[in-house]
Amino acid sequence: MSDEQVLIDQCLLGQAKAQRELYGKYSSHWYMVCLRYLKNETIAQDIMQNGLVKIFTKLKSFDGSKSKFKTWSTKVMVNECLQHYRGKKIEFENADIADSTTHSLSYTDDPIHKLSAEEITQFIQALPEGYRLVFNLVAVEGYTHVEVGERLGIKPGTSKSQFFKARNLLKTQLKKLYGYSNAIL
Predict the structure, then answer these.
(1) Torsion of CA 23, 25, 57, 67, to 10 degrees
(2) Residues of the chain with CATH 1.10.1740.10
(3) For the chain, how big is the Rg over CA atoms in Å?
(4) d(CA 28, CA 55)
(5) Which residues make Cβ contacts (< 8 Å) with residue 154, sequence separation at least 6?
(6) CATH 1.10.10.10 placement within the chain
(7) In the CATH scheme, what is the code of domain 1-88?
(8) Is the Cβ–Cβ distance between 81 and 39 less than 8 Å?
């Protein structure tokens, strides 16, 4: 039995120390997941708290033989972020990224490989809402356009279009900031 499974078993027994340890191990990852979907830090923190409640409430349903805990808990956080958008009108057509996005990024010889998680998150956060949701689901989480369509209530073609536009906007921003046009996105 892995150390992580022991920790999860202790959490299931209600041991607060184990719960704090599990939280400490993954909290920054979970927060970054929420920030990728939600621009506002306060809302991202609230959504993360909701996700934490679900993670610890549903921990008994986690099956370590089917997936890693990090993968499972990330899906819980993603679902919680998507829950935030349910019932809201999301712009999926013809949105445009602001020319005056602010990034405190410095020039490097190979910007794509040297960007930190925080810098990548800043780029993703600068995307319009619809682009950001689709980009995260496809590029980061690995969903197909059909799955994205089902989750967001849009057509797969709309998902493909939003993903294409998001990638192009990210490439434009990288080129603008770094003069780098061969971004692998």
Answers:
(1) 170
(2) 1-88
(3) 18
(4) 15
(5) 92, 148
(6) 91-185
(7) 1.10.1740.10
(8) no
| Amino acid (1-letter code) at residue 135 | F
Q: What is the pTM of this model?
A: 0.74
> Alpha-carbon distance 149 to 102, whole Å?
31
Query: If pLDDT is split at 50, 70 and 90, which confidence band does 131 have?
Result: very high
Residue count of the chain: 185
pLDDT of residue 26 exceeding 60, the answer is yes
- Contact at 8 Å (CB) between 22 and 111? no
Which tokens is 54 given? 């679900």
Report the CATH fold assignment for 91-185.
Arc Repressor Mutant, subunit A (1.10.10)
- Mean pLDDT value of segment 64-69: 91
Averaged pLDDT, 83-98? 67
Question: What's the token pair of residue 68?
Answer: 């890693």
The percent of residues above 70 in pLDDT, for the chain, comes to 84
d(CA 118, CA 29): 11
CB 178 within 8 A of CB 115: no
Region of residue 74 (left: phi > 0; alpha: psi -120 to 50; beta: else): alpha
Cα 51 to Cα 34: distance, rounded to the nearest angstrom: 9
